Amino acid sequence: MSLVKLVDLPSFGDDRGGFVAIESSQSIPFEIKRLYYIFNTSGNKSRGFHAHINLKQIAVCVKGSCRFILDDGFHREEVILNSPTQGLMIESLTWREMHDFSEDCVLLVLANSHYDENDYIRNYDEFLGSVKNKTIEGHVINLLKCY
Ligand code: T46
């Protein structure tokens, strides 16, 4: 299964210009509790390098472009975001890195919970440990279901 899940956002552009309307829990699969945006970026300054324990997010490059790397501890995939009508779903327990920002990039991020520094895993080995624990937990639950 691909790590890169792109969500088509409801787009109502016409000859007056582009137009996208995003509704919480409707056009995106969670309730929006927070949004933030990244701008004034530069191509040689990468960002991210962390995972979240619980947070789910959708990232939309409303202007310009940037390259995302997503990593679930087993696979690593990358995608270039350059469309204001598509959002990249970023699931919990996914390592993310953002590279190659264009100078005009404006990256909007919609999040399903408020800001919590305790939800961040900023060390890659720690991230791999959390993935391993979750995988073992999943196997145990499946085994218990068999009995
Ligand atoms: C993510 C990627 C895509 C806040 O005070 N409130 C907030 O809601 C956020 C997101 C950040 N901050 C503070 C924490 C740092 O002092 O703003 C500063 C910049 O955050 P950070 O270095 O984590 O930014 P990025 O671009 O590396 O990562 C951000 C998000 O933090 C992260 O959740 O998934 O964008």
Layout of secondary structure:
Elements: E1 5-8, E2 34-38, E3 47-52, E4 57-63, E5 66-71, E6 76-81, E7 86-90, E8 95-99, E9 106-111, E10 120-121, H1 124-146
Give Rg in angstroms.
17 Å
Q: How would you classify the helix and strand content by structural class? A: alpha+beta
What is the N-to-C order of secondary-structure elements (H for helix, E for strand)?
EEEEEEEEEEH
Percent strand equals 35-45%
* Count of discrete alpha- or pi-helical segments spanning 4 or more residues: 1
- Number of structural units classed as domains: 1
Name the CATH superfamily assignment.
Jelly Rolls
N- to C-terminal distance: 29 Å
- Estimate percent helicity: 10-25%
Spans of 5+ residues with little confidence (pLDDT < 50)? none
Give the total of beta strands: 10
> What small-molecule ligands were found?
dTDP-4-keto-6-deoxyglucose
**What's the overall average pLDDT, rounded?**
95
State the strand order across the main sheet: 1-7-4-9-2
How would a crystallographer describe the biggest sheet? 5 strands, antiparallel
Cα shape: globular
What is the CATH class name? Answer: Mainly Beta
Q: The CATH topology, please?
A: Jelly Rolls
CATH architecture: Sandwich
